[in-house]
Structure formats: structure tokens, C-alpha cells
Amino acid sequence: MEILKAILFGIVEGVTEWLPVSSTGHMILLDHFVKLNVSSDFWKMFEVVIQLGAILAVVVIFWNKLWPFTISKTSSINGNDSAKHLRWKEGAFAMWVKIIIACVPAAVIGVAFDDKIDELFYHPIPVALALIIVGLLFIIVEHTKGKNEPTITSIAEITYQTAIIIGLFQTVAAVFPGTSRSGATIVGAILIGVSREIAAEFTFFLAVPVMFGASLLKVVKFVKAGVHMTQNEGIILLVGCVTAFLVSIVIIKFLMSYIKKHDFTIFGWYRVALGIAVILMLR
């Protein structure tokens, strides 16, 4: 039964991590109705570390864009001998600098206030309110800015200033679960003229260091607390991560195809409906 629950959590993580509907919010809400038979310390780690499966999906799909190096060959003067050299791909260094810059605000907030954020906001009602507020914001942005012709249509066109602004929007999601990291960064990017497709792609790239760092932080805290993972808990974590990876592969490809012809309005209405439903159920 616990394996089936882990699969369910993996499916929810894989679907909601990349759609702008808040994976953390859905995980908190799912935990409210479907409880894993694990320790509270393990659960706090599990709901974050399961994201590693989703991260791996991004790395696999976008490997050619994310891997910053390429191999070049140089020949000797007589042309008989050649040597291979590892060098940066054109534009790769600048792209990764922008990604790191955009991640700094959320990283600082996460490290400094992680426990306080858990205490204050990791509850169904704050999550429901965040779902509704950001859902309404999506609807408003799509009906105003979303109709404009984007001024940034490639990753290379994202400036350092633009990366910082997107990073600040990501910080909101780091503080308020239910906001959605992808939702916050996509809304912020669209507001400053980034196309939907590039906004989604850059959001995926930001996820790699952000989610890896968040997972590492939770694992370190778990270990420092002197808590030992049981064999069953280890299996649950593995199953959840593998499921999240497989589902994420499908969802990322779906989203990149979907936004070529559609906007994000439907996700806004979904967020509002879910938030209202949660509040009504908890009355």
C-alpha cells in the first residue's frame, strides 16, 4: 500500500512540478488526504527530495542545451596528429551565469528562513490562498500582457537584468508554497516581454540548481538531526523519484508543445477552482 502511495505522490510531483499549478501545494494537499506511513522527519525530506526525479527529466530532455562544453579538434602543422580539447559552447557560459544569478535570491531566502517558512506557510489554507491569488494573476496577465508580441524569443536574448527580475519572482514561490515556482517565473517573464516558450524553458533550466540545492538542504538537515531512514522509507523515496522522473518526461514534452498554440489561462482557472475547493473542504 505504501508503494502505491509513493507512486501516487510521484505522479502528482511529475505532473505539477512543470505545469504552473504548484507541486509543493499539491503535495501538501495530497498529504492532507493520503498519509504515507513514515516519520515526520522523513516526510519533510521526501516532499522536497522527490523533486530530484523531476530534475533528472529536465537534464535528459535538455542535455544538449544544458551541457556547457563541446569537444574541438586541432591538427598539427603537418596534419598527421590531432588533439581533442574541451571548450565552452558559444553562449553557454553566459547562460549559466544568468541561471545562477536568477537563483541567488531564492537560495538566500531558502537557506536563511527554511524552517520558519515551513512553520508558517506549509499548511492547506495558505496554500489554497496562494493557488487562488496566483491563478487570478495568470488570468489577468494573459489577458493584458499575454496578447503583446514578445520582445525576448530566445535564451540568448535574456539579459542579466532580466534574469535578476525573473529570479525575484522565483523568490515569491520560495516563500509561499502554492505559488508555484514555475508559475511565478513564467508570469514574471511574460510581464517583462519573454515569450511563453522561452519563459517555460528558462524556468526548467532554473529548476536544476534550485531543486538540487533545496533537496541537498533537506537531506543535510535530515542527517544532522540524527534520523535514520528505514529500508521501507528508502524504497518509498526511490519509487517516488523514479515515478516523478518518468511522468516529468511526458509532462515537459506536453507543455512545450501545448504553449506553442495556447496560453496559460486554463491553468489560472484550475488554480482558482482548486483553491476554492480546498477552502470549502476544510471548513
TrEMBL record:
GO biological process, one term: peptidoglycan biosynthetic process
Membrane topology: Multi-pass membrane protein
UniProtKB keywords: Antibiotic resistance, Cell membrane, Cell shape, Cell wall biogenesis/degradation, Hydrolase, Membrane, Peptidoglycan synthesis, Transmembrane, Transmembrane helix
Main location: membrane
Domain of life: Bacteria
Lyase found in the keyword field: no
Transmembrane stretches, start-end: 42-63, 93-114, 120-141, 162-192, 204-223, 235-258, 264-282
Molecular-function GO terms, alphabetical: undecaprenyl-diphosphatase activity
Localization per Swiss-Prot or TrEMBL: Cell membrane
GO CC entries: plasma membrane
EC number of the protein: 3.6.1.27
Stored Pfam families: BacA
Reactions mediated catalytically: di-trans,octa-cis-undecaprenyl diphosphate + H2O = di-trans,octa-cis-undecaprenyl phosphate + phosphate + H(+)
Protein function: Catalyzes the dephosphorylation of undecaprenyl diphosphate (UPP). Confers resistance to bacitracin.
Miscellaneous comment as given in the Swiss-Prot or TrEMBL entry: Bacitracin is thought to be involved in the inhibition of peptidoglycan synthesis by sequestering undecaprenyl diphosphate, thereby reducing the pool of lipid carrier available.
Family that this chain belongs to: Belongs to the UppP family.
Protein name: Undecaprenyl-diphosphatase
